[in-house]
Input
Amino acid sequence: QLQLVESGGGLVQPGGSLRLSCAASGFTLDYYAIAWFRQAPGKEREGVSCISKSGYSTNYASSVKGRFTISRDGAKNTVYLQMNSLKPEDTAVYYCAAKRYFTDLCSYTMDYWGKGTLVTVSS
Output
């Protein structure tokens, strides 16, 4: 069974940092593009960042560009989202998702989803 499990969320003060992890079980992430999404209370889910299967192609939402960094570790079968300079408006449930592509594509069209991890930015 294919599973994605997010971890690393929590409460952090504005200006602080967190690193989210997305660990896969039941399959290898080597063939999958991965994306991070978030959904704040009362808002629609939005794509935050994506990374191609090779890791060479990445994309960031304008709201997080320069503050967030997506990366992947094949040996650990895990994708990370390093979040720096966090703002209260970053508060949301963060989800990772995966889709198998035959090309080295970064996309927000996904097939498999994790259950999310809550990030709260507050003083």
Remarks:
- The CA atoms of residues 4 and 114 lie 5 Å apart.
- The longest strand covers residues 92-100.
- The radius of gyration is 13 Å.
- The chain has a mean pLDDT of 96.
